[in-house]
Amino acid sequence: MKPRILIIYTGGTIGMIEDSATHALKPFDFSHLMENVPKVKMLNYDIDNIQFNPPIDSSDMNPSHWQQIARSIADNYYDYDGFVVLHGTDTMAYTASALSFMLDNLQKPVIITGSQLPIGEVRTDGEENLITALQIAAATEPDGKPMVQEVAILFEDYLWRGNRATKRSADNFNAFKSSNYPHLAKVGLSINFSREALMRHQSAGGLNPQYNLDPSVAVVDLFPGLSEKVLRHILSAPDIKGVVLRTYGAGNAMTAPWFIDLIKETVDRGIVVLNVTQCAYGGVHPSRYVTGDVLAGTGVIPGFDITFEAAVTKMMFLFGLGLDSKQVKFYLERPLAGEMTIS
Ligand code: ASP
To answer: What is the mean pLDDT of residues 172-178?
Structure first.
């Protein structure tokens, strides 16, 4: 049996061409993309595709697009061995994180990739990324089970857990990195999977997709000099249910009474505040410093080593389930899809 793979083409640089008037890159259709990768035929897979109409630059992604991708996977889940999502790099880590929560009990590969240079360029990284993503989506264990049973990002030399990865470079071919979790595979002459890092499911039953997302989330990035007026304005925005608070180092923030009182007031109003670190490596350890401890005393939830992208999308997902703030807090402190390590 040939591996059956479904490609979902959303857009991104990989399929872009130059606008003749402005020379800026704009998304183009899937047939153009595939014409530039004739080698795909050498894989001898059964490949079908679904494409966004029109394909988009991933800066235009929003939760409705995540729903569209999740539905395409769920509707075709039992007809394919694996899924490859072609996507722009700018918001790839957000899409990967959102899908990791939405595709509950996923036991097949969903490999997201794209490129830094369009597929039509001589030095493109798109051809290699696409072919490697297809091979990973088709890879199996000796017992025939899929090697990858989760949402992952393949870029250049590495396969990363989708909800652990972040775009780190606007220029390098190795554009993604996961600071707090090891790679799932290293791509060289062969593709070497790190079995101990790959997700393995214990639970029986099929895919349990959840499509509702609630974007009533705000983000506050701390910096020395942040004023009470500005912060009060953000936190009093109507309809916000959750705030991702990006703090210093191990989860530290200023101890000025106006700040602590304002955060406490916000938590007491039933708004969920999640503490994530601005640092790329490591995570929130609330009791390491007095400054973190004081903040924890207001009722904010520690995000441990979760990425910013996973924090935002996890909140949207949990509020989308219709949970109340107490239940949302409960799940924020626990990994749902391997997105964080509790310390
Ligand atoms: N702006 C592009 C996008 O995210 C960048 C890329 O694909 O690399 O769609």
So the answer is: 95
Average pLDDT over residues 210-217: 98
44-73 confidence digits (pLDDT tens): 999 999 999 999 999 999 999 999 999 999
9, 58, 119, best to mutate for ligand 1 pocket (most atoms within 8 Å of CB): 58
Domain end among 176, 209, 242: 209
Closest C-alpha to 317, from 165, 210, 208: 210
Name 151's Cβ contacts closer than 8 Å, sequence gap at least 6: 96, 99, 100, 103, 106, 110, 112, 161, 162, 163, 337
Q: Which domain holds residue 63?
A: 4-209
Concerning whether 166 is annotated as a catalytic residue, the answer is no
Q: Is the CB of residue 163 below 6 angstroms from any atom belonging to ligand 1?
A: no
Q: Is 81 in the pocket of ligand 1 (CB under 6 A)?
A: no
Of the pLDDT bands very low, low, confident and very high (cuts 50, 70, 90), residue 292 is confident
- Residue of 13, 89, 247, 291 marked active site: 13
302 and 199 in one domain? no
Q: Please check whether residue 341 lies inside any domain of the structure.
A: no
Ligand 1, atom 7: nearest CA belongs to which residue?
88
Closest C-alpha to 254, from 215, 230, 290: 290
Q: Does residue 256 form part of some domain?
A: yes
From the CB of 116, is ligand 1 less than 6 Å away? Answer: yes
pLDDT per position as a tens digit, 137-165? 999 999 999 999 999 999 999 999 999 99
